[in-house]
Amino acid sequence: MSIAPQGEPKKKKRSGSEKRKRTTLIGVRVDAEERAEIQANAAAAGLCDSSYLRVLGTTRQRTHARRRPVPEMKPFAQAMGRLGIYASNAHQLLKLANRGEIVLPDELAEASKKLREAADELLKVIRG
C-alpha cells in the first residue's frame, strides 16, 4: 500500500470482480428438457437464466435484475458504437487543433468521412 502525500494510506483500487457482493455459487444440474424450460420461462419474463432462478428462489423481485438484450436493438447498438468511435477520433483531432498542433488535412477529411458514414448508417437503422 502506498502512502499519499499527506501521509494517509492510499486506498487500493479494486477490479470489477472484487466489487461483487455475491460470492457463493450454487450449482444445479438439469437435463436438456429442464434447461430448455428454464430458458423459455426466463425469456418470457425478460430475464437471463440466473436472474430468473434467483427471483424464484428468493421470492422477491430483484431491483437490478439482469435483463436479456432485445435482439432488435443489436444493429442500433452496433451503429451507435461505431459512431462513438469515429466521434472520439474526430474529437481527438479537434483537441490537437485547439492546442495549436498541426492536423493533416487528410486525417481530418478521413475522420469527417467516417463520421458521416457512421451517422448515415445509424439513420438507416433508425428509419428501418
Oligomer: single chain
Helix/strand order:
HHHH
Number of strands: 0
Low-confidence regions: none
Our count of domains comes out at: 2
Question: Rg to the nearest angstrom?
Answer: 24 Å
- Strand content range: under 5%
Q: Give me the secondary-structure category.
A: mainly alpha
Describe the structure.
The chain has 128 residues and is mainly α. The protein has 2 domains: 23-68, no CATH class; 71-127. It is built from 4 helices and no strands. Helix 1 crosses helix 2.
Summarize the structure.
This protein is mostly helical and 128 residues long. Helix content is 56%, strand content 0%.
Chain-wise SSE layout:
Blueprint: H1 32-45, H2 49-58, H3 74-98, H4 105-127
List keywords for this structure.
single chain, 128 residues, mainly alpha, 4 helices
